[in-house]
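Problem: given the chain below (426 residues), write out its structure.
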Amino acid sequence: MTLKDAPLTVAVLGAGTRGAIFGEILADHPHLARVVAVAEPREAYRAAFATRHALPADRTFHTWQEFAAQPRLCDAVVIATMDRDHVGPAIACLEHGYPLLLEKPVAPTWEECRDVARAQTRYGPIVAVCHSLRYHKGFAMVKRLVDDGHLGDVVTLDQLEQIGFEHFAHSYIRGNWGNAGRATPMLLAKSCHDLDYLAWLVGQPCRRVASFGSLSHFTAANAPPGAPDRCTAACPVERDCAYSAVKLYVQADRNAWPAAVISADHTREAHLAAISTGPYGRCVYRADNDVVDHQVVTMEFAGNVTATFTVTAFTQCGGRRLRVHGTKADLWFDEETIVIRRFAGHDVETIKPGAEHGPHGGGDHRVVRNWLEAILRDDPSCLLTGLGESLRTHAIGFAAERARHEARVVALAEFDDALDQEATRR
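Solution.
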């Protein structure tokens, strides 16, 4: 790789949790890139990000629109805004010729995903989508083992995503992704990279999808007797409630996720004030959440390969569990240990991929490095998760939502036809 143009200059749009993570990763690779601008509407978060990366006042912007209104300021852009705010900055930055690292999901709707893809086709910059699971050390090892034939021919796969009860309450009831009208269906927001990974692991096109799921528990009908709208309002069951906002955001480590998210000031008083008035203090049974709290997706791929994916709020701990069933062996993976059980000889092989620094088993670091190297090489073929690939696997998620709402099996050809028509118009 020729690094004559390194380090690249990068702007980060959105300085929340994910934007801050990307900023830190870029700072960890000063030979490849440096952060030179930020856009973030919340003053405290914008100021903290600017201070961390020593940004001057004329490179800190309140909104992505202010950034996009400037002449070209840098080499590339990370988009880590909220899901509903991906499309506007993505298209505006593509018009400027900025290569993009786009946080998943690409957009809240299939049509908006196509809008971003059309903009890339028109303007041409490199776009990588942050499907961190492909870059996770252990999941990447599973992919190599499968491709190298250790299991024979893959016949069926099962993956479970355990969101964890606290995580679900934080993100998908009280938080930014609790209402599909404000964000994205839960399956796309949380699990589009799980579906992406399964499709990548199979290595064949997905043909048909069915899905079932609902919001079954976190509703007013299931609220404990006497529970108020807020956890701070003398709730009679607060002491024994697993979802108590007082426990999760005030009595917990306020400098760590998820408590740290609710306030830029991490004093006890600031966190108590935040749950007394803000969204994170709401009773989980009396919020405005409408996304499913559990969902199952069944997929049929070319070659008669089948897969299931289950995502659920009802687990004590988080993490993923994967099973791959082949003609010669099966494989189990729990994010720490890979177990291969071969049919001939009944032997069992245990592999420890080893922990790696950073979120998603080091996957986020690899996403960023892969993107930066593709830009430096000016070679989009270097990308492991380019926009075109991501669009194909996003379609599985949108097909699952269509299947769930319409109570039918959905053929992926419904989405392929739309893309073919768009290609014809171009």
